[in-house]
Amino acid sequence: MKTNISVEYIDEIIKSYLPKNRDKVLQAMEYMLFSGGKRFRPMLLLNTAKAVGKRISDGAKTLAAALEFVHTYSLIHDDLPCMDNDDMRRGKRSCHMQFGEACAVLAGDALLNLAVETVFEGPMSNKAYVNACAYLFKMSGISGLVHGQSLDLFTETKDVDDATELAIAKTGTLIRAALVCGAVVSGATQEEAELFDEIACKLGVCYQIIDDILDSKKCEKSFLDVYSENDLIEHVHELNDEIGAICDRLPYDLTFIKDFCEQNVARQK
Prior knowledge:
Layout: H1 7-15, H2 24-33, H3 40-53, H4 58-79, E1 88-89, E2 92-93, H5 95-99, H6 101-119, H7 127-140, H8 145-154, H9 160-185, H10 190-214, H11 229-249, H12 255-266
Antiparallel strand pairs: 1-2
């Protein structure tokens, strides 16, 4: 997306919350944290916070770091042999292949716990910040990311509704956390937060559709099980139009979201 918030800026925020010890688990955590991720979730959070609040508060920065810790934990556990059993991630050996399965489990656990430790360093006397923290961890648990992993492991994709539910639960939850937390921490109203959530759900579906198309030879459960590639691209464009219309209902400059929609359709990885 077009933004002056860089990956390097986000990396510096993340580094400021990392423990200082150098044991093997921390090495595994850092290996995955700095393995070439696009940081688009914290980038969405910070851009939303800036759009709503006219600035990026310290609370928004703290939430952005915590969000990336949650995301990275989910990748480590997703790659494990008992889950998706992936040997590679972002062109590099996955965490359990590089450090061993036991260390990877601990690294994922540590990152999720670090996310909690991190948010407690923020302005806990600020009700909006606390509400944003609560939403982040709601989206990380059984009502969000864990539910998505459960659907991925234990259910079948029989129709487009199944594929959409999986996309929102597994891919969309942390996008929902990004937009809603960014909006709430900067003072958005409940009605506005609900509109950001609606945008995020649609973004999650769009992102997963493009992922499925790009990983068509690898995906076991996919939108391609129920739609052709051409139909899916058309569906993404329809959803992007709906996202743009919702953005226009909000009293903020959300050009970065529209840019993200366009770049998602064009991406090659």
